[in-house]
Amino acid sequence: MIRILLLAVLSLLPIASVSGQEWPSKPVRFIVGYPPGGGHDFVARTVAQRMSEQLKQTFLVENRSGASGAIGTDYVAKSDPDGYTLLIASPAEVMVGPIAGQKVPYDAAKDLVPVALIGETPLAVAIHPSVPANTMQELLALAKRSPGKLSYGTPGTGSSHQFAGESIKAIGEIFIVHIPYRGAAPAVTDLLGGQVEIGIVGMPPVIGHHKSGKLKIIAVTSAKRSAATPEIASVAELPGFAGFHFTNWQGVYAAAKTPPAVIQRIAAEIANAVRDPATRQRLLTAGVDPLGLGPAEFSAFLAREHATYTKVAKDRNIKLGE
């Protein structure tokens, strides 16, 4: 009889464990596939801090950088599907890189599950102060007068930043040379030094330099002006660029087979964190537009993004190593 009762109790444990109500019962790790100090690291630490406060549990940010975010992504894909190891992803490692031919040891569509979309960072079209242009229209005119004389730096080949740059080249009918870097930090360093004239990077690494006058952000690449910098025009406002939209978003993923109830619980708590006024203001100040979308909305967003990037990769023949 005792044995039967024990088995009956044990049979109920899996149900309790997947209910999501007990999450988090131990520390949670946010995995960032890039070095400390970058935009994704900032977003991860901002959200982790708020979630620690609201849930009275430890949230750690762990940087596992390398291979354009693929190392950290693979780590989460192979982690236990329990909701305690989460990926803070950019488009590069879960979508754009693979579309551009990046060889990765995981299939994001099969090995990961989208949990929440924290926010979206419009990419900045920033130029060195020596460039004689103050608007996107003036930059396009300058590039047309001097084809091949200007160069633009991005955090890497196959990044959303390159896709945005190549789309600007195609629609604007200009030729500027793409210079890929290993991350945003070295791209911004060379932009500050004038080694490249144009940078297409996320807002967080350059917004401070823009405010200090060391760089000029002349446009953002989102379809609408950013809530963080409403004074800066969108590329989509230019004639012929209607609907132009490329961003560097911050999405949360869990390992595949993580219980749906746990996924919903995590998504709800992330939404709560993003709605917190102080957290929201920190994100906005860094150039991040807070969203806090759940699994269904995030999945629909990803489908639209995938269609856009697939078309651009085909039309512009964007491949890693080129």
Polypeptide structure, described:
- The chain has 322 residues and is of the alpha/beta class.
- Helices cover 43% and strands 20% of the residues.
- The protein folds into two domains: 25-121 and 247-316, D-Maltodextrin-Binding Protein, domain 2 (3-Layer(aba) Sandwich), CATH 3.40.190; 122-237, Periplasmic binding protein-like II (D-Maltodextrin-Binding Protein, domain 2, 3-Layer(aba) Sandwich), CATH 3.40.190.
- It has helices at 2-17, 39-55, 70-77, 91-99, 108-111, 136-145, 160-172, 184-193, 207-212, 260-275, 277-285, 295-316; strands at 28-32, 59-63, 85-89, 112-127, 151-154, 177-180, 198-202, 216-220, 247-255, 289-293.
- Strands 1, 2, 3, 4, 5, 6, 7, 8, 9 and 10 form a ten-stranded mixed β-sheet that branches.
- The protein is globular.
- Mean pLDDT is 90; it is low at 1-17.
Keywords:
single chain; 322 residues; alpha/beta; D-Maltodextrin-Binding Protein, domain 2; ten-stranded mixed β-sheet; 10 strands; 20% strand; globular; disordered N terminus
In total, the number of domains comes to: 2
Which regions have little confidence, pLDDT < 50, spanning 5+ residues? Answer: 1-17
Name the CATH superfamily assignment of the largest domain: Bordetella uptake gene, domain 1
CATH class of the largest domain: Alpha Beta
Structural class: alpha/beta
* Main sheet makeup: 10 strands, mixed
Q: What CATH architecture of the largest domain would you give?
A: 3-Layer(aba) Sandwich
Strand content: 15-25%
Principal-axis shape equals: globular
Give me the number of helical elements. Answer: 12
In N-to-C order, the SSE pattern is HEHEHEHHEHEHEHEHEEHHEH
Distance between the termini: 70 Å
Q: Give Rg in angstroms.
A: 21 Å
- Here the CATH topology of the largest domain equals D-Maltodextrin-Binding Protein, domain 2
Question: Average pLDDT across residues?
Answer: 90
Number of strands: 10
Helix content: 40-55%
